[in-house]
Structures are given as C-alpha cells and as structure tokens.
Amino acid sequence: MIDYYSLSKSFVISIVSALCAYLLVFLYTNFAPLYFAYDFDIPAFVNLSGIHFLTNTGVDYGSRDALVTILLSKPISAVIVGIISLLILMVGNKKPISVILFLFWVNVFAFNTGFGILIDDAVAHSGTYEVAVAMNINFAIQVIMAILFAFILYKIGMMNGRLIIMSFPHQNLCLRTPRLIFFTAIFLIPWLFVVGYTYVSGGASVSISELMKNLPVLVLLIPFLTAAKPENADFKYLPTVRHNILDLVLSILFIILPIITIIILKNEITISG
User: Fold this and answer.
1) pTM of the model
2) Is 44 helix (H, G, I), strand (E, B) or coil?
C-alpha cells in the first residue's frame, strides 16, 4: 500500500526542486553560449526567454569556429551537467529525499536541454543543424546519431527509474498501482508545473518547436513505468529516514534560489569588457 502522507511531502519537494533545477540548468546552459559569444565579440544577453544576439539581421558568427563553438556550447554544457548529476545520484551513499529529487530533476532537465535543442534545430533546419552542415555531416549520419541519442535517453530513463525505485522502498513502487500514482504525483505534475511556468514567464510559446524541445523529457520519464525491480537492491541507496529537517531546509532553499534566479534574469545578463 502506498504511503500517501509521505507521498504528499515528496510531492511538494518534487515541485520546488523541479522548478529550482530547471532554472539553474537554464541559467547555466544559456550563460555558456553568452560567454563564448563575448569571446568572439558577438554582443548578446540572456533573460527569461533565453539568449538573444544583439543584431537586426541575424547573427554573423564571423567564422566557422565561432559558429560551432557558440551553437554547440549550450547542448554540450547541458549534457555535462546531466552526466555529473546522474553520477552523483548513482553514488552509493544515503541521501535526503530532497537531494535525490533535486539531482533527478537536474539530470532530466539537463539532458532534455541538450537533446531537445538538437531535435528542434533538426526540424527547423537552424542552430545546431547549421553546425552539422558546416561540419559536412550528411543526412544519413544525422539519422544514425538521432537513433543513438534516443537509445541513450531511454537507457538514462531506465537508470533513473531503478534509482528512484531503490530510493523510495516504502512506496512499494514494484507494484503497478503505487508506481502509477507515484509517477503522476512526483514526476508528471511537477514537470507540467515547470512547463506552465515557462509559458507564464514568456520563456516558451505554444508551438511545435516547444513540443520538440520537451520530447526528451517523456523519453526520460516514461521508462520509470516499465523499469524492472532491481535485483539485489543495495540498501546504501536508501535515505536514512523518509523525511527529515534537512528536507525542509533544502525545500526552502529550492524556493529562494528560483526567486533569485528569476530576478537576475529579469534584469538581463550581459558580459562586457
């Protein structure tokens, strides 16, 4: 039987940690191309809707190196953050539930940013697609890479699923009904909350482009529903207690950090010499 009292606490933690993780990933992955744009003397700024280049007729990258560096810096930096957060999540020491959920959402939004950009740009024939053209990567290679990326995302989703199952043993996630309820409360609703925030803040619009950018999230989350019960589950992954005072402290921090990040992004971030 699912523990609804504990689930309700995890639900709140998941929402605030998801928003915090999204904004921190957003800030870092947009600052990366901003830094390299400055390095190549291309004026730009970052706000709540992303990075903007200060030109009226499109971006003149000036060189192939600038094109490749600036356009690939965002997905590459996102994937690096995703790998680091996933590795920390996998480290076999006991963590508070708030840390587990925060690391989970960081790797979900980081990998979604990294691969979502590639999907959207491939459909729109812009951005990183221009890099593929500049590097003479033909269509067949792009298709093979897309299949490989989808497989990698699926495996990451399966890995996340097993780690979450091991981290919440008191929720009986090896059973179908508790798993569906947990998926809806801890994964689906917080993700929809973050998506709603992006539309309200003006960082997203109702379009096929936004759907493409969010497609990897589904590939990362849905495998949880089919993840097999871990064999010989190692109890070193389990939290010492279900919820503790550290979860409360971190949840407050997860509320404060997004507020600070939003204020920073509203004022726009630029780099000047």
Assistant:
1) 0.89
2) strand
